[in-house]
Design goal:
Oligomer: single chain
Helix content: 25-40%
Distance between the termini: 19 Å
Number of strands: 12
Mean pLDDT: 79
Low-confidence stretches: 90-117
CATH class of the largest domain: Alpha Beta
Strand content: 25-35%
Shape: globular
Order of helices and strands: HEEEEHEHEEEEEHEHHHHEH
Length: about 270
């Protein structure tokens, strides 16, 4: 790995070690993962009764994000709250991945909603925007997605956030973000007037009802991500696609600015 990337990742680990220690967590084994122009530090964390893992990601533009995982994810995130770090904790109860069917509403309700997200992009009441992020330059890598709505207070509010899948794919993640939003709307968990995605590919797959990918999803992606894709495919075959597609539009970044659901890791 590039020496500068290694130095920045380890410096970030040193910064978070103190607040973790104050919360009763000790740093265990550390592993560097080379992702080309990106980098990732995997850190085992041990508490008195719980343990977990922290992934420290360094983006292409030098921005750093921290993703706690495992049974201690929520406690680790709480320990790092207010330290100036971008911390995204995957819900430990959903570590096996999100299933896209009608029986998963209880699991989805357990995902905590963040505070209003302030971003300098104008929105309109009733707009729901989704986006996906994949770490690293490789075709397959850590992948997550989320959705934000423009609330009456004039801010973009995160209303759902997927788990972080270890081996996902960006186009498929963009597609799953749309499916996730539609299923939440169908169950009445969310309301919106328009649903936006900046992915032409994902919108095309939804419109045609066909996931046209050359990826061997079951072979190249992790089991949880593959299950989410397979469940989404089944749902898409049974739903009223024209009804949902009628409310969809492509978010044009050249006209409106950055996608407000973007993770800022470009």
């Amino acid at each position: 790995m590039n020496g500068e990337i290694d130095r920045k990742l380890r410096a970030e680990l040193e910064r978070i070690e103190r607040p973790l220690a104050h919360a009763g967590f000790l740093i265990g084994e550390v592993r560097i993962v080379d992702e080309g122009s990106w980098g990732r530090l995997d850190v085992l964390v041990e508490g008195t009764h719980i343990s977990g893992k922290i992934q420290i990601h360094l983006g292409k533009k030098g921005n750093i994000s921290i993703v706690p995982q495992g049974t201690a994810a929520t406690a680790i995130a709480a320990a790092l709250k207010g330290t100036g770090h971008d911390v995204t904790a995957a819900n430990p109860s959903r570590a096996a991945g999100m299933r896209f069917d009608a029986t998963s509403s209880t699991e989805r309700a357990s995902v905590p909603k963040s505070a209003a997200r302030k971003i300098n992009v104008r929105g309109n009441d009733g707009e729901l925007v989704v986006d996906c992020s994949k770490f690293g330059g490789a075709l397959i890598g850590p992948t997550e997605w989320r959705g934000v709505v423009f609330n009456p207070a004039g801010h973009w509010q995160e209303v759902f956030h997927s788990p972080l899948y270890e081996r996902g794919h960006n186009n498929l993640g963009e597609f799953l973000a749309i499916i996730d939003a539609c299923q939440r709307l169908e169950r009445g968990e969310l309301k919106c007037i328009t649903l936006w995605s900046d992915s032409k590919t994902a919108l095309s797959w939804f419109r045609t009802g066909k996931i046209r990918t050359t990826i061997d999803v079951n072979g190249q992606c992790d089991a949880a991500f593959a299950a989410a894709v397979n469940d989404a495919r089944k749902w898409l075959e049974s739903t009223n696609r024209p009804k949902w597609f009628a409310m969809m539009s492509r978010w044009d970044t050249s006209a409106r600015g950055e996608n407000p659901a973007d993770f800022g890791r470009k």
